Amino acid sequence: MELNESLAAVFRANGNNFKPFLRVMFRSEEFYGDDIVRNQVKSPVQWLVGSARMLESDLPPPFLCTAITNSLGQNLFAPPSVKGWDGGTSWITTNTLLERYNDAVTLVNGTAQQLSAMDFARKQGGAGGGGGEKLAQLAQRIHVGGVNLQKILTPEERADKDSIVASLQNRLFQTTLKTDQQEALHEFLDSKAKLTDADILTAIRLMMSTPEYQIT
Fold it and tell me: What are the Cα distances from residue 151, in Å, to 108, 145, 155, 208?
């Protein structure tokens, strides 16, 4: 209640301008409380756009973004009912979780995964239509960007395995992974005599395939 009153006072004092109001809200301790942070399953759109931003990579072409969100269970601008999508844990099924793992490869490596005409359907479960088959074939021949490691890791970080894990952990999760997950990442990196960019990209994909990455 005290925070609400403070925010209301800031809003009124700044002529109902949202910018100062949001600045105060985003800097408040309450906004980052344990009951709020990392307590929401990312929707397909959140997952796709958020991943591209955190990886500092370009989004795939619009038609491919549509196919990806469709495959993850969200046909944008075409909710299943007037109330919208159920959200929450309904976003995660055996199929959509596997799709998230596969789509992580698309974003990280910059190579589109195998998509069918169904993924390009205007309605979930509908026929491809609208050139769905042609779009599916085109998706296999395009390069969608991928991660530029020089943008997200310094040369010093790329040369040190502990720094790689620490930096990527902070970038992708803004918190620390569980001990066994960190050990698994270190074990993977330690198995490489000479670390390559491909190995680091694989580590990113492994991080994106954890349950923790599916929440925000």
Answer: 13, 13, 10, 18
- Residues 21, 7 contacting (CB under 8 angstroms): yes
Tokens of 61: 């072409």
The residue extents of the domains of the chain are: 2-32, 60-139, 149-214
Give the whole-angstrom CA distance, residue 155 versus residue 15. 47
Instruction: Specify burial of residue 198 (Cβ count, 10 A radius: 0-12, 13-18, 19+).
Output: exposed
Buried b (16+ CB within 10 A) or exposed e, 176-197: ebeeebeeebeeebeeeeebee
What is the length of the chain?
A: 216
Closest CA to 203 of 109, 118, 98, 134: 109
Q: What digits encode the pLDDT tens for the residues 19-48?
A: 999 999 998 888 887 777 788 999 999 999
Dump pLDDT digits (tens) for 51-103: 999 999 989 888 889 999 999 999 989 999 999 999 999 999 999 999 999 99
